[in-house]
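_Backbone structure tokens_
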Amino acid sequence: SINPPRIVAVSHVPDVAVPSAWHTDHRPMLPPRLTPSGSGPQTASASGSAQANEPTMLPPRIGYTSQHSRYTQEYDRWARWTYASPPAETISLKILAHYEGGPKRGCSQSTVFGNICEGKKDINALITAHNLVPIALDTIIPKVKRFCPTFAWCFEEFTVHDTEWVDLAEHHSPVPFFYSQCLQPACKNPKAMTFKPKQFTLYVVVPAVQWLDYEAF
């Protein structure tokens, strides 16, 4: 005919057996509720109506260690250390930046440069030579960096000396380095010794070879 009937496409979907449990309420299942009595978790019913009206009890927090229980003690300990008064017997330091050698050969063992001089006070008089080294280096190295920031200083080669040219890094004695120089006879009893605070001088020394490299820089 002139107007043939309209053709309608029909999809052929395979018949799949659907379990009967799928036809129940599809609302999400609530997690098991923890009971305080420890009788075990209670399983939510299929409808979920009973548990939906009750707040869900979450499990206890985890991840904390026993260190948290000592927070108060640690806080008090660090507070006492931070605000502790300096030791009764103290010395002060005068620390200068030097380079090895003098302006004229044989004139001196070292020469000050850059007018770099810093003072430190309230240093424990019982400090050893080994512990004086980092104090001197930490005080002077930032000043040397500012003195010439473009030069590649090798700070590992710097040494620390006293006025007698003792290399403190090589002085391995456990005896306090300056303490004996602070003892003097007591006024009322000359046989007894009393402590008198003093100031001592230390030099942070740039090796001669490195200083020559700086001058040629």
